[in-house]
Every structure is written in structure tokens, then in C-alpha cells.
TrEMBL record:
Location in or out of the cell: Endoplasmic reticulum membrane
Domain of life of the source: Eukaryota
Residues passing through the membrane, by range: 29-50
Protein name per its UniProtKB record: Divergent protein kinase domain 1B
Amino acid sequence: MRRIRRLVHLVLFCPLSKGLQSRLPGIKVKYLLVVWLGIFVGSWVAYMHYSSYSELCRGHVCRMIICDQYKKGIISGSTCKELCEEHSLLFQRCLSSSPTQQVYSGLWKEKEVIIKCGIEEALKADSNPASVPRRDVVLFDKPTRGTSMDEFKEMLLNFLKSNLGDQPSLAALVSQIITMADVNRDGKVSLAEAKSIWALLQLNEFLLLLSLHEKEHTAKLLGHCGDLYVTEKIPHSSLYGTDVPPFLQPLLPAAVQRVLHQWVAPAWPRRTKISIGLLEFVEEIFHGTYGNFYICETSVSNVGYNEKYDFKMVNLRKVATEMAIRGFLKGRHCEQNVDCTYGKDCTATCDKLLKQCKGDVVQPNLAKVCGLLQDYLLYGAPPELKDELQKQLRTCMTLSGLASQMEVHHSLVLNNLKTLLWKKISNTKYS
């Protein structure tokens, strides 16, 4: 014990000379308090990080639940064998922002991928293994045994109509879903295959991946098992290539974050190519094949690009269908416009007389995207282009009103901006 006390004394007080200690008798106590305060703060930060990680990152629970259902024959999928038998689909880094939506980077067939699954039902039972049977009942409950193929197709069509609207192209989407469900390619859809694809369709992002699969601006869907699905990994998951870590964002002023973004951003011609891709994506989801879609959180961390500087939408969970927004707004009580907000920034007007939300979003996607691109494109822009670019971005940002009543104006502004940018990089190595 004496040796331990001597060691502690040396660690805590050796940096101070005896002469200094005699002149400042209170410094021992102050120094000790500072050391212990440092230890306490460090321990608290480590504990909070661990508790936050253990709460958000439950990939082992997700894998346990999915493989349990697969072994029981309740679910099926193109990646089930690799996940549960061969163990060649590997979970790596946790990227989850919510405990009910598990997101991991992973490795599959020697390629980096993103693995996503939901464990909401299991978490309701405190992640107890006993919650697995509950998930059998709650999540994989449709279709029921005895459902015919024609009845299942009718289920799918009605589901798509309620979520995407009565679009003439839905029959083709139903055929695509049936083909995806038929994992063993035997021309039939088993009950396990049908339950799996139905559970996946309840996930907004998966539904949007299917709806926008023909476009080159979303991640490719690589496979699924139950309601777990795998997509390609987008190399750069921020518009600037690298984003400020979430825990630092509240601490850094907006001006400092802007400077950091500009410092790590790609060269201006490459940013131009990425921006043109983003504008094309806005064009695609405005009266697209399967209806209208709205970006309801316009953030640099929700959009990214690949190694060729082609734009990619990173987070489709922040995109909503027109039907979803209308369903949210219908009959909703409000006092002001902010009460009529779906997601973060899909806002409709509030009828002050009726105290109810109107059904149309006020600000179109293009206006929000131009606001995002203003700093992104103006920094480092060629001097001869800067004034005209700034003018067009300002015009774009003022777009408002019902998109259905301003379709021509919307298209004109978008095409003018795309043309201005494309002329500057066309016939160069950046195009």
C-alpha cells in the first residue's frame, strides 16, 4: 500500500518542484482537483460514447432475428444463405442514427456494401430473444397461407396505389416486384418469398429504391433476406466529400463549417458535374414514372457522389411520396404553417380560417436544392460565370407556390441552370 501511495504521489505531484509547492501551498489541491476532473470528464465521455454505441448499434440483434426467421422457413431472400449459413456477408462499421433502423457498412463478395434492417418490433420487447416469435406475428404476417398468386398481385397493386397514387405504370412495377421475390427463379413465389418482399415494401426507402431503380442517381439494390437489404456503398456520402462529424456540428459556428467544407470540397468543375446530376435527379422525381416525390430534408449529408463524380442520393429515407405527404396533411389541425411540416422542410400552408393544413407543399424541390448549391457552386466559380450563376441561383431559390401550377416555369429555370453549368465543362476531361 505504501508503494502505491508513493506512486500516486509521484504521478500527481512530481511535475511541481518542492520550492514551487512551498510557495503555492494550495496548488496541490488544485492540481489534484484538475486531474480528477479530467478523469471524471474522460470517463463520462467514454461511458456516453459506449452507451450511445450500444443503443444505436445492434447489428448482432438484427442478424440473430433474421437468421432465426430464415432457419424456421418463415422468410427467404437472395442473401440469406451468405448471411446465415456461409457467413460471407459481413457486418463492419456501424452507421446507425436510430436504434430501430440499423445501418452498417459491410463486405460481400469482396465488395464494400451497405446493410440495412429494422428491429423495431424486437426493441419493443427490450431486445430480449423472446421477442423473436413476436416478430413472426407482427412483421411477417402477410400474405397468409392460402393466398393465391392473383390475390398477391392484387395486394401489391392496391398497396402501390395507396403509396404512389393510381399511376398507369404500376402494373410493370408489380411484375418487377414478383421477379425480385422469386429468389430461386422457379417461376413461382413461395409463402416465405412473398412474406419477405411484403415486409420490405413497408420500408419507405426500399419502396423508393424500387420506384427509382431505372435512374442512375440512387444506390443499386444488391440483395435481401427478410426485411434486411443490401445496397452498393456510395464512396462519398456528403456533397463536400467529407462532412463535419455530428458531435462537432453544434460546437462549430456556421462560418467555420463553411470554410471547412470549402477546404475539403472537390475542384469546381467536379462540383459542377455533381450539381448537374443533382439537378437531373430533381427533374426525374418531378412527375416521374411513379408519381411525384419530395426531398423533405435538404442537407449536404443526404447527397453524395461516386468515384467518377456522378451524383448519388445517399439517404432516400428523407424523400417522400406525394401520397405520403397528402395523407399526413389531410385534416391536420394547425395554427401556423410550421404545423404543416412533413419531415424537416416539406411545408404546406395553414388555412387560418379552417385551422387545417392545405394539401400541397409550398416550396418545390428545385428551390431547396438551389439553396443547397449556392455556396457549393459560387465558391471558386470562374469570374466570367459567377454573376450569371448567382443570378440564376437566386431566381431558382425564389420558386414557390404549387408545382403543378408552375410546371413550365420550374422546367425553364432548371434547364437554364443545367445549360449554364454544362457549357462550362462540356468537351473537357470533367464531362
